[in-house]
Amino acid sequence: MTDVIVYLKAPVAGKVKTRLQSRYTPEQAADLYRAFIRDTFATTQKIDADRFSAHYDGQGDVVDDLVPNGWNVVAQAQGDLGSRMLHSLRHAIGSGASRVILIGTDIPSLPAAHLSAALSRLEQADVVLGPTSDGGFYLIGTRVELPDILGEVEWSSPHTFEQTAGAIQTARHTLSLIPPWSDIDTPTDLDLILQDHKAPLTHTRAAVEAIAG
Fold it and tell me: How much is the pTM?
């Protein structure tokens, strides 16, 4: 059984994508993030998997209208990002998944092929990571019940990916990588991604156009 988990925050103005607020209002940043979520879901649904889950942080009623029909909607566990992700991955494996991948919602331009590649890599490797250009990672997947490999990772730092990869290898799990991709944290990140006219960004482009008037 194959599981796909999407991590998202409730798109509440002032609480999401705060770095976009150097150009946009809190309400506009929330609208943009809501579009990122929709584009991420649209891409994720293109891949072949048995179970799809949306794990949210914040107000559950705010995300209900964003999640596709048939998906499981689950509140994230307590703790820092690492402990929450480990909880989600362990629960998937413990409930029968032979492979599970977890992604965030700052990557609306990610091709579905990258997700399929991650699942394919898990046929051989214990863990798969998708690095981001800023030193983090946009995807983590596993086929084993992982130990506490994320406890010492510095989140939102240039060392996040490096530390995570090192912890996986220290735990003697085999690691495979899929191609890097860029997430969206700042207005400049958004500008660069919008320049790729082949990117699947239907909702994001519509949100930007609506803001521009």
Answer: 0.96
